[in-house]
TrEMBL record:
Species the sequence originates in: Actinacidiphila glaucinigra
Protein name (database record): tRNA A-37 threonylcarbamoyl transferase component Bud32
Xref: InterPro entries: Aminoglycoside_PTrfase, Kinase-like_dom_sf
Gene3D superfamilies tied to this protein: 3.90.1200.10
Every Aminoglycoside phosphotransferase domain range: 3-100, 111-177
Amino acid sequence: MELIGAGRDADVWALDGTRVLRRYRHGGPADEEARVMAHLAEVGFAVPRVHDVSGADLVMDRLTGPTMAQDLARRPWRAHAHGRLLAGLQASLHAVPAPGWLRRRFATGNPARDRVLHLDLHPENVILTPDGPVLIDWSNTAGGDPAADTALTVAILRGVSLGPVRDTGLRLFLAGFLRAAPADPAPRMAEVITARLADPNLLPAEAHRLRRLARRTPGGD
């Protein structure tokens, strides 16, 4: 198999021209992730088709196209438009009620108001296929308050630094995202930053930037 992608806790291997194997490095089960993806496909949300799941292994369609992050690196002038596109994807996702079997995180307190949350929505998790954008990596998915999902995307983007020139593009991207964001992130921002800082995969530089953000956030430390 050919290694074609690697995240913070999983690797992606090409099985052939049409399928990939996504494997957790630490052996976490992928059953609920596969179930979420199947559920979203049933309601018409664009996700990779799942062929098989076994323990930590998930076999899915191999998608063709760059990630949104790769497209931004090549065409930085699209930053604002891509920010709005990401917000549109999130809005479509938040239209899907959270099924009763889905674990809850950042819950609203009213199960009928909980929606499917991605909880890792950023440009590297969007593939721009010829048929349209497809959202990948559903390992963090839960049911809960859409404001928390929006706040987490803001926290992820605020924690990144790409250098002075590319940071300008990142700010334009974030401005586009917030202009079209489906929910106000403010009510959940402090809570989300705290949760993000507890992530063992967080890099020290990201943690430093998030602590600075927390100090400027109402309700933060």
